[in-house]
Amino acid sequence: MVVRGGKRIYGFPIGILMLEARFPRIPGDMGNAGTFSFPVLYRVVQDASPDRVVRHPDAALLDPFVQAARELEAAGVRAITTNCGFLARYQSALAAAVGVPLFTSSLLQVPVVARMLPHGRSVGILTIDAPSLSVDHLRESGITADIPVHIAGMETEDHFTNAIVGDHLELDPERSAREHDTVARRLVGEHPDIGALVLECTNMPPYAHRIQAATGLPVFDIVTLTNWVHASLARRPFEGAL
Question: How far is residue 91 from each of residues 50, 51, 113, 136, 137, measured CA to CA in Å?
């Protein structure tokens, strides 16, 4: 059997576009390779700080992200994602720039999750900074006006958002978990029609199990989306099938 080359490396099905940050990447975080059961390939976009992407979005960053996505594609990845849900504003532009599937944000799951729910149910969105989550982010994620959503931000608490957006060297996971519990309970308490939650921030998955325990709801995030895409790239024959 003859095989054909052409790529620089092999065995990395998913590429991840990374912000340039130094805050801790605990297990479950998009920036911790141990989060996944398969290899991932990272590419850091220089000068793309959390603040410059979340609170003070800079359109000049689009070209560096495009270049980094193309580098990941050239390296051999078969799908590309990012480690910041706020990059949803560039979903169309980045997806058009490469020849492999590219998904910028966990928010892309919201339309699908909404259609899973019974009539009268809504989707709750937890974000790292609600005032910064704009109509552009929602529109680029396919979240149209007819999709019922309720949004709550972690910026109301003292630690998690400050540590991530402020790019601090220290993070208290237990304190962050308690803050996620608080915000999730508040959101669901204020909007009892919520039938599922989607976590916008790629640093939130470490706390997804706590959020689920606190609310009793299905919880979707960038890890569930990445695992779903990976499953489409790594099909295996069923035992006993042809």
Answer: 17, 19, 19, 10, 9
